[in-house]
Amino acid sequence: MEEIMSKLLREPRVLAYECSRSRCSVEEVSRAVVNLLRNSRSIEDIVPVLEFIASLKALKSTSNAFNSIVNSLTSVKDKVLEYTSPKMLVELYGRDKHLVLKLLVLLELYPKISLRDKLANIVVEVIRQSTRMYMDKPKLLEELLRTLIYGPLEVLDEKHLPLVISVFTDLPKLDCCVHVKSLFLSMIPESYPRRIFRNKQVVESLQGLLRSILVELLDQALSNVEGLDVVYDEVSLFITRLNNVCKDIGDWSPCRLIVDSNMELIGKLAKTILRNRVSVS
């Protein structure tokens, strides 16, 4: 046990590699991780655990070892909640964003440690607090929101999806936010099960999110030509993915409600982009 604890503290990435190759004692590593978390007094105390878990996840380990080590965190979920509180995540992000990116990996593990229903509220609060705190630092804000999209939000329970969609729809009218909204939009048909598109509330929420993106793009058309193309490409990707979903489920009503109802705005935007490209050439 002492040897494992020493390696966890000094060489967490090496230990993660060994575990991903089934070359560690899962029981001892689990005990070491739990003990370190349970006895921690500050965020600095758990940095080795964060390094270990982030590295193990990055190695794309799907082994029983990974699942067992993660499941052991259930016994210290109070500590996991403590270190992933929205206030801590948002305030710490301004000082050490790399540490926060590792803490966000813990959020992705919520469904595995009996915290699934708490994930949505924490993510929503992180979004709301970060947009207030980092509105004058758009690059920093965008990176944090992107990490949420391609991390915790990919494992969100689908019943909470309408709430989170509404929060993205209401993001401030900033260039970085409209880009983030489009990334979130295009992620949904790629990462969530097809059945969500039979949920009327989800479909109506997506209709509103797409509309808000298109309206903002038209408002920014003259001031942000380069950003316009980037976001429009993401919207086009969403439409392609959504069409594939409708084809797979044999039901085109979600596509009609989400896309066709916004077709006038899509057409105006396409013409604006075409004019910009012609004027540049």
What does the model show?
The chain has 281 residues and is mainly α. The protein is built from 16 helices and no strands. Helix 9 packs antiparallel against helix 10 and helix 10 (138-149) packs parallel to helix 12 (175-191). It is elongated, with a radius of gyration of 21 Å. The model has no long low-confidence stretch (mean pLDDT 92).
In short:
With 281 residues, this protein is mainly α. The chain has helices spanning 2-10, 12-20, 26-38, 47-58, 64-71, 77-83, 86-93, 97-108, 116-133, 138-149, 161-169, 175-191, 200-219, 225-249, 253-258, 263-280.
Main β sheet profile: none
Shape: elongated
Mean pLDDT, to the nearest integer, reads: 92
- Count the beta strands: 0
SSE string: HHHHHHHHHHHHHHHH
> What class do helices, strands and sheet pairing give?
mainly alpha
- Parts with pLDDT < 50 across at least 5 consecutive residues: none
Q: Total number of helical segments?
A: 16
How far do the termini sit from each other? 67 Å
Q: What percentage of amino acids are in beta strands?
A: under 5%
The share of residues in helices is over 70%
Q: What's the Cα radius of gyration? A: 21 Å
Secondary structure blueprint with pairings:
Blueprint: H1 2-10, H2 12-20, H3 26-38, H4 47-58, H5 64-71, H6 77-83, H7 86-93, H8 97-108, H9 116-133, H10 138-149, H11 161-169, H12 175-191, H13 200-219, H14 225-249, H15 253-258, H16 263-280
Helix pairs in contact: 1-2, 2-4, 3-5, 4-8, 7-8, 7-9, 9-10, 9-11, 10-12, 11-13, 12-13, 12-14, 13-16, 14-16
List keywords for this structure.
281 residues, mainly alpha, 0% strand, elongated
